[in-house]
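I am writing to request your help with a piece of structural work I have in hand. What I wish to show you is a protein chain and, alongside it, a tokenised description of its three-dimensional fold. Could you please explain, in whatever detail you think fit, how the structure tokens follow from the sequence? You will find the record immediately after this paragraph.
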Amino acid sequence: MEDQNNNKKGPQLSIEIKPDVAKGVYSNLALITHSPTEFVVDCVSNLPGYPKAEVVSRVIMTPETAKRLMLALQDNVAKYEAQFGQIKFASDQHKITFPVGGGQNGLS
């Protein structure tokens, strides 16, 4: 039986992170596209003084995984804001959305 925290009895998932992935990449912009079967999140580095923004990482996931990620981000942002205060947007750019290709894209 499961408890309220969704802790399940049974084998634990072992997660490994390779050193080149562990160092991460810097992203200050995300482009999100979806189709009926997947979500694509392109993490972009948009630095002042550089003529082009570069996609530094692409993550492709199922719609269920995308929704789980959204819920986890909402939970973590709420915890962050409870500890450090409200996150404020530097501008209204967070409201910009535009269509590109066949799916839905938005800037985050």
Notes: The beta strands are 29-34, 39-45, 54-61. The helical segments are 19-22, 63-84.
